[in-house]
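> call design_seq(struct)
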């Protein structure tokens, strides 16, 4: 794409983008975002990303906090559960598919997210992730608030015990980077620090709520004027024992005392029997997991009535059987996190060339051989590690031909439609727009660096 072609569809006046030809801009977005992601010069790449984000805002796709909606849900539960979707690979294509289905079904309540761990192995820093999502919105003509979330911004227990200051400062830095990239939804996870050896539940949760309060204060100190970032907390490390009302009260009451700020948490992640990615069996299939929906119902009701939160959050849900998803709205769950199931669909699609899949698997066998446990079968090792096949090979994934990617995206759209229906988020555009008023935060465009 040439600068002249770009100037035919947009104009920059006093640092602000104006759209001259929205349809023409949409036609250019594929090459514009590709050039940005794979620009070799770091400074120019960052400038590219900021530029594309400003284009998206001018088109009406605005990064936003879901706080207003969650405050409404805390007052009156509307009967739907918000899906939060982690995209590890083919991010532009998957985000486009998600926006297409959202537009078709009038869905306004859905979140794009990426976890601390995923940022590393998918090689998607916050600025890139936010930009790719917003580029997809422009391509599909989506207008309205776009919810982008930092998932599991976690204090890693081993790192924290070795050097608390270094680990805390790392997460503070990640929060700052994410907010600058316009992630206006952040989930803080210090549940890894819960000390079950202490006799009282309040003391067990103390390292958790004190660190959540500290990091929440960091979020509030950095949020732009007019934006109340939605902050999530967590009481039960996913994959461990199920959460209890006593733990929820100990954590939330402790947080309330420790937190020096105005608005606190909007939701609470709990453990109900799932694990991230599911439990893989020796033959590579995923074990059926039973979610403790009674725990979700009791705790969601508790945190809404006693603390004004939107409800509880379910992690590790994408590999659950389809019939389980009806239960999330019925139990008052406010948000559900979905990741591995979509990754599995991509890898296992008959449309993905077998030779390319094997190329990715061979890369994993070579690069991550040390991560294989002694008791793992080949199938278990590949299943648990193939999420790391996206980052290093990002360009090859991106450059898969349309006749490969398009049918895979059609398969994902069918899944998105099913989830939207079961989670009851169809026709949520109006309630989102009533409760969420996106604030356009202008970022400076480096016109000279981009040659504009």
């Amino acid at each position: 794409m040439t600068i002249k072609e770009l100037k035919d569809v947009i104009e920059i006046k006093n640092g602000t983008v104006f759209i001259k030809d929205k349809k023409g801009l949409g036609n250019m977005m594929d090459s514009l975002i590709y050039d940005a992601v794979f620009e070799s010069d770091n400074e120019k790449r960052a400038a590219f990303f900021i530029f594309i984000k400003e284009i998206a805002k001018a088109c009406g796709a605005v990064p936003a906090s879901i706080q207003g909606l969650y405050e409404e849900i805390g007052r009156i539960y509307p009967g739907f559960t918000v899906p939060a979707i982690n995209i590890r690979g083919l991010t532009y294509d998957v985000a486009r598919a998600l926006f297409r289905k959202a537009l078709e079904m009038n869905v306004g309540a859905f979140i794009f997210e990426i976890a601390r761990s995923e940022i590393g192995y998918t090689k998607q820093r916050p600025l890139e992730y936010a930009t790719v999502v917003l580029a997809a919105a422009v391509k599909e003509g989506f207008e309205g608030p776009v919810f982008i979330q930092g998932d599991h911004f976690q204090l890693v227990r081993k790192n924290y015990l070795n050097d608390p200051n270094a680990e805390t400062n790392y997460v503070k830095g990640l929060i700052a980077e994410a907010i600058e990239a316009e992630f206006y939804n952040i989930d803080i996870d210090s549940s890894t620090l819960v000390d079950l050896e202490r006799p009282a539940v309040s003391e067990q949760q103390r390292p958790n709520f004190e660190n959540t309060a500290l990091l929440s204060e960091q979020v509030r100190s950095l949020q732009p004027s007019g934006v109340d970032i939605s902050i999530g907390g967590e009481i039960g490390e996913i994959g461990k024992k199920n959460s209890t009302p006593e733990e929820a009260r100990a954590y939330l009451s402790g947080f309330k005392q420790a937190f020096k700020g105005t608005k606190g948490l909007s939701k609470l992640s709990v453990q109900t029997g799932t694990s991230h990615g599911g439990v893989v069996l020796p033959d590579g299939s995923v074990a059926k997991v039973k979610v403790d929906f009674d725990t979700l119902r009791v705790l969601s009701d508790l945190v809404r009535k006693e603390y004004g939160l939107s409800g509880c959050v379910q992690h590790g849900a994408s590999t659950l059987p389809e019939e389980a998803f009806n239960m999330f709205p019925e139990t008052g769950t406010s948000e559900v996190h979905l990741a591995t199931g979509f990754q599995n669909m991509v890898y296992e699609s008959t449309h993905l060339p077998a030779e390319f899949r094997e190329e990715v698997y061979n890369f994993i066998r070579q690069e991550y051989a040390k991560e294989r446990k002694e008791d793992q079968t080949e199938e278990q090792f590949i299943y648990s590690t193939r999420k790391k096949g996206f980052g290093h090979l990002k360009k090859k994934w991106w450059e898969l031909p349309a006749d490969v990617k398009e049918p895979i995206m059609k398969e994902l759209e069918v899944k998105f439609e099913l989830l939207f229906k079961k989670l009851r988020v169809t026709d949520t555009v109006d309630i989102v727009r009533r409760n969420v008023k996106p604030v356009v935060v202008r970022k400076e465009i480096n016109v000279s660096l981009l040659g504009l």
